[in-house]
Amino acid sequence: MPLFAFLCRRWLGLLSLSLVIAVLSAAGKPAKAVETAKFEFQDGDRVVLLGGAFVERLQTHGYLEAAITAGLPDKNLTFRNLGWSGDTVWGDSRGVFGSRPEGFQRLVSDVNLCKPTLLMICYGENEAYAGVAGLDEFRGGLNALLDALKPTGARVLLLGSRKHENIGPPFPAPAKYNGDLRKYSETTAAVAQERGAAFIDLYDLPGATENGLHLTEAGERELVHAALPLLGVPSALFDSPQQVALRKVIGAKNELFFHRYRPQNETYLFLFRKHEQGNNAVEIPQFDPLIAEQEKEIARLKRS
To answer: Which of 33, 42, 176, 190 has its CA 20 to 30 A from that of 289?
Structure first.
C-alpha cells in the first residue's frame, strides 16, 4: 500500500474514533444550562407564586417570603401564594366540581385577582407522572397558560421542579420518575428561552422531606438557603427576632388571603348551591382591608 494512502486511512480511523469518544462523553454529561433572561426583583413588585403542592406548602412556615422580604428591605414587595395541591398547567385542581376548561379559567381568574407584576411559576411535578409521552402536551399546556397570563403584563420567572427524595421502603424508589421530571424541567427551561422569560432550576437543590415529596420545616429552610443566591437575595438569619416576627405576620396575611380566594364554603357562595347562601358572597372582599393591615405590619418589621 502506498505510504500516502496508508497515512490517510490511519488518520481517518483516528478521527472516527475521536468522534465516537466525544459523542459518548457528551452523552454521559448533563445537558448544558439553557440561557434565559436575567432575573431580579423590582421595587413595587406584586409577586404571585403559582403551582402545585410545592408552592402551596411554602406558606406553611413562610421562610421564603420572609427571607426575600427582609433580604431586600429597600424594595417594596408584596406576595400572593396561589399554590394549589395537585394543580397542573391546565388548572386541574381548580375545577372543583367542574371540567378542566373551568379549572383553567379559575386559574387565570385567580391570577387576575392578584394584579401581579411578577409571576413565579412552578409546574411539571404532577405532569411528569405521564412520563416522556406527556412532554409535548406539557409544553403546549405551559405555553397556553403563559399566553393566557400575558395580558397581566407581569414578568415571568419559571421554576424547574425539585426531584423527589429516595427515603427507602416502604416508599417507592423515585429514579424513573426523577429521570422523567428532569426532562420536564428541561422543557420548562426551553419554553423560558423561547419566550424571553427567566428560569431557575430547583431540581438538585437540597431539602429533607417527610415522605420523599413534601419538605419538612428543616428541609424548607435548607431549600430556601440554597435558593436565595439564585434569586439575588442575601442569606437569611432564619432564627433572628426579625425573621421570627416576620414569619408570624406573613403567616397571618397568607391565611387571610387563602380565605379570600379559596373560601371554604365556596360551593354555597359561588357554585351550584349559591341559591342557599350566595347572599354572603359580598363578605369575601372584606378580607382585603385585613390583608392590607398585615402588609403594613410586614413593611414595618422589615425595616426594624
So the answer is: 42
d(CA 252, CA 266): 21
Say how many C-beta atoms besides its own lie within 10 A of residue 192's C-beta: 25
Residue 102 lies in a domain: yes
CB 216 within 8 A of CB 209: yes
User: What single-letter DSSP state applies at residue 91?
Assistant: -
Tell me which residues of the chain have a pLDDT lower than 50.
1-33, 268-269, 272-273, 278
- The domain that contains 192 carries what CATH number? 3.40.50.1110
Can you tell me whether residue 204 is helix, strand or coil? Answer: coil
pLDDT value of residue 5: 44
Q: How far apart are the first and last CA of the chain?
A: 86
Q: Which domain holds residue 114?
A: 46-237
In a domain, 72, yes or no: yes
CA–CA separation, 164 and 219 (whole Å): 13
pLDDT at 4: 41
What is the C-alpha to C-alpha distance for residues 44 and 26, in angstroms, rounded to an integer?
A: 44
Contact 184, 124 (CB under 8 A): yes
Rounded Cα distance between 290 and 287, Å, is 5
Q: Centre a 10 Å sphere on the Cβ of residue 221 and count the other Cβ atoms it contains.
A: 20
Is 98 within the bounds of a domain? yes
Q: Pairing relation of β-strands 118-122 and 46-51? A: parallel
Separation of alpha carbons 285 and 231, rounded Å: 32
| Structural domain count of the chain | 1
pTM to 2 decimal places: 0.85
Backbone φ, ψ for residue 78 (5° rounding): -125, 150
Supply the pLDDT for residue 281: 58
Residue 252 to residue 263: CA distance in whole angstroms: 15
